[in-house]
Amino acid sequence: MLQIVFNEISASEISQLDTLEQLELLDEFKVTKDDLEHINDERFGEIERDGKKLYRFRSKDWRFYFEVIGEQVIVHRVLHKGTFSDFLYRSKLPLGEDEALAESKHFWKLIDEGRLARRN
Predict the structure, then answer these.
(1) CA 6: distance to chain centroid?
(2) pLDDT tens-digit profile of 34-64?
(3) What phi and psi values does residue 70 have, to the nearest 5 degrees?
């Protein structure tokens, strides 16, 4: 299993949940290299832009967006599914969630904010 590191923004996002929900989400959020090499589990997804690979992990109504650097999983954002379900509904895009996010400038702005945040 890879080491999971939350930056300031993603740590703040998950800390806003009640303690029990935090524990349940963190218990589910396990990432191995095999998970990422063989993304055939609906919990995981891949989003790419300009040759950079970002991963998505779904747990209940939450999405963890992260990248892997060496042996670390760097979590950039932890967002509620409604954040992007509403976006997809309003834009009426005939794409899946991951494909639509790959094309969304707003989504990448959120991710870049997370990339630039200090790691805890």
Answers:
(1) 11
(2) 888 878 778 898 888 778 888 989 888 898 9
(3) 65, -120
* Phi then psi dihedrals of residue 45, to 5 deg: -150, 165
CA distance 42 to 120: 28
Domains and CATH numbers, the chain: 3-116 (3.30.2310.20)
Rounded to a whole number of angstroms, the CA Rg of the chain reads: 14
Residue 15: both structure tokens together: 């800390």
Torsion of CA 64, 22, 13, 4, to 10 degrees: -50
Q: Which of 107, 109, 108, 78 is nearest to 11 (CA)?
A: 78
Q: Is 44 exposed, middle or buried (0-12, 13-18, 19+ CB in 10 A)?
A: middle
pTM of the model: 0.75
Q: HEC string of 15-28?
A: HCCCHHHHHHHHHH
Q: Tell me what pLDDT residue 109 has.
A: 81
Tokens for 32? 């191995």
